[in-house]
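Practice record 12: protein with zinc ion.
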Amino acid sequence: MRDQITALKELQKIDIDLKEIEINLEKFPNIISDFTSEINQHKESITNQKSALTEIEKAKSLLESELEQNELSIKKAEEKLFEIKTHKEYEALQKEIADMKRSNSDLEEQILQKLEEIENSEKKIAVDEETLTSKETEYSQKIEEYQLQIEELKIVHEPKIVEKNKILERISTEVLPIYEKISNKNGQALALVVNELCTGCNMNIPPQLYNHILTETEIHQCPSCKRILYTTQGE
Ligand SMILES: [Zn+2]
């Protein structure tokens, strides 16, 4: 039974390694894709801000040409004032000019507002572009590191599986299902007995069972956590 325990210990060691490798082989590509999508989100946000900026600039141009048109109309109306004969007509035209001037100062205010929006938007875009550049540098370095680690993990993964299969050949068909059942449930299927305590769950091992473990004639499980027990005796 000692050789079974030896093989199980080797199996447990390799299973722990394999689990870590497999977790990272799944985790690292996800980290890389998170980095990539964060960068893409940044790029998309900048693109959206730029098209919003273009819209504001268009709106500002429209206001400016409206203002220009109105100024022309005011000028024409003011010239017309000199040709008017009746007082009533004169007053009507003067009122029209005052109205146009009022609407123009409204337009000027709106243009100023657009200018301010443009300035703020340009500032924000510049800051975001700077952040994007530094993130791209940082992330591309990290992505490269993770890709390297993935390659390294792939290189060790295959030989570990070959090694595991060789160990499995040494384990009896009665013992293996016990090992697999406990390791699926508890992570580790073996527990060392120290000072008559199971190190898997800290339960006291009854003296009679402890003596059986020492004789190593068969596989013994902890009465509490069901792990396969072994001692360092004879090592
Ligand atoms: Zn136990």
